[in-house]
Design brief:
The chain is α+β, with helices and mostly antiparallel strands. It contains two helices and three strands.
């Protein structure tokens, strides 16, 4: 019994280390969100920090509302890509763990 508890503790510690490593890798990754067929792009980190915004010069006209919508859409695209990337990475790390449906890890 004591040995089984020791094994469980070792597994928990390894999982914690794996999760920390995965979080660090995710934070360092970057994704490109885009809208308007690539006319607006947003470079975003895994921490959901925007690093670069690129707007095609053809959009710098009188239609401010359209440009604002395209920037918002590009940001949303990048945020969704980060979320998908994190979900896939965490699925790899937690593979085989009996987590309840809908359980979210804290990141």
């Amino acid at each position: 019994m004591k040995n089984a508890l020791g094994n469980i503790m070792q597994q928990a510690q390894k999982m914690q280390e794996d999760l920390k490593k995965a979080q660090e890798e995710l934070n360092a990754m970057q994704v490109m969100g885009e809208s308007g067929g690539g006319l607006v792009t947003i470079l975003m980190t895994g921490k959901r920090e925007a690093r670069k915004v690129t707007i095609d010069p053809s959009l710098l006209g009188d239609d401010k509302d359209m440009l604002e919508d395209l920037v918002a859409a590009a940001i949303n695209d990048a945020v969704n890509k980060v979320a998908k990337m994190k979900k896939e990475k965490m699925a790899d790390v937690t593979a085989g763990l009996p987590l309840p449906p809908g359980f979210q890890l804290p990141f």
